[in-house]
Design brief:
- By secondary structure, the protein is α/β, with parallel strands linked by helices.
- It folds into two domains: 2-116, NAD(P)-binding Rossmann-like Domain (Rossmann fold, 3-Layer(aba) Sandwich); 121-214, 2-Layer Sandwich (Alpha-Beta Plaits), CATH 3.30.70.
- The protein is 33% helix and 27% strand.
- It contains seven helices and eleven strands.
- A six-stranded parallel sheet has the order 3-2-1-4-5-6, with helices on both faces.
- Strand 9 (171-178) and strand 10 (181-183) form a beta hairpin.
- It is elongated, with a radius of gyration of 21 Å.
Amino acid sequence: MRVIIVGCGRVGSHMANSLSAERHDVVVIDKNPLSFGRLDREFGGRMLTGIGFDREVLQKADVEGAEALAATTDSDNANIVTAVAAKETFHVPRVVARIYNPQAAEIYRREGIPTVTPTLWAANTMKTMITSPHLTAVATLGSGEVESVVLDISKPLAGRMVKELGVPSELVIAALVRRGQALIPSPDMKFELGDAAHITATVSALARLEKLIAH
């Protein structure tokens, strides 16, 4: 896959190193050439110095032939302008942008530009760790209304059926990891000690689940 990464900070450089190690064709763009020092010695892609949303810079990166572009700079505005240009002007099939402002991220998601919001993810993850110590946060969906968490099944829950924890339209046991193997549980399946239950639920349902576990 040919991928363009705009921004060679911690996120961009990690992506570039990982994709290059997997033998993808990677081009990294950053306005500061010193940023390329974050790339591994084994990095086999190209490095371009310039502004990521500049048309000439993108063309030098062969944006017309790119299959994906990730805008990962520390500027929301730069990331959005870059993502819009890649998607609407150059018709790159897969475009994703890192956006710190949750409200802006939701707006651009509605416009068809997938976004990653570290501010929202970090805030909700830390909140879950404080208010729901029995749950491990995995992902925040939408604007934080729904979360994906992992619950390690302890003795009080072992032997109970999956449907006892599930609540239609509010909480779903999406998967169980049992002795290293993942499976989709049936409603009548019983939890076993040591299971890891992957749960998708509304924030209010998670609060009720935490109270149930605590008691």
